[in-house]
Amino acid sequence: QVQLVESGGGLVQAGGSLRLSCVASGSIFNGNGVGWYRQAPGKQREWVAGISWGSSTVYSDSVKGRFTISRDNAKNTVYLQMNNLKPEDTAVYSCGISRYWGQGTQVTVSS
């Protein structure tokens, strides 16, 4: 059974930092890339960052230079370090592998 569980969200002031975690159970983690996505109220889901099995990374322009995606394959975990957060980063953040998604974790950035 595949399960993705995100954690680490919360309320932070603009300019602050948070680190999100995505833990995957089952065999889906091995050999696959992982993406972080976010969805703000009233908006479509937006891709934020991705990391390959070999740890190559890509970022959306909106977060490049502020967010860092990384993974620990021994722990089946992908991280999203978010620095210099802005109010427009407020959203539910989810991780995705193949066709599987987690429930998400809420990030709220106050101005």
What would you note in describing this structure?
- Helices cover 0% and strands 53% of the residues.
- By secondary structure, the chain is mainly β.
- Strands 2, 4, 5, 6, 9, 10 and 11 form a seven-stranded mixed β-sheet that branches. A four-stranded antiparallel β-sheet has the order 1-3-8-7, with no helix packed on it.
- It is globular and about 40 Å long.
Largest sheet: 7 strands, mixed
Query: In what range is the share of β-strand residues?
Result: over 45%
What is the number of helical segments per DSSP (H or I, 4+ residues)?
Answer: 0
User: How many E strands?
Assistant: 11
Average pLDDT for all residues? 96
Helical fraction: under 10%
Order of helices and strands: EEEEEEEEEEE
What is the approximate shape?
globular
What's the helix and strand layout?
Blueprint: E1 3-7, E2 10-13, E3 18-25, E4 34-39, E5 46-51, E6 57-59, E7 67-72, E8 77-82, E9 91-97, E10 100-101, E11 105-110
Parallel strand pairs: 2-11
Antiparallel strand pairs: 1-3, 3-8, 4-5, 4-9, 5-6, 7-8, 9-10, 9-11
Output the keywords.
seven-stranded mixed sheet; globular; 11 strands; four-stranded antiparallel sheet; 111 residues; mainly beta
Briefly characterize the structure.
This protein has strands at residues 3-7, 10-13, 18-25, 34-39, 46-51, 57-59, 67-72, 77-82, 91-97, 100-101, 105-110. The chain is mostly beta strands.
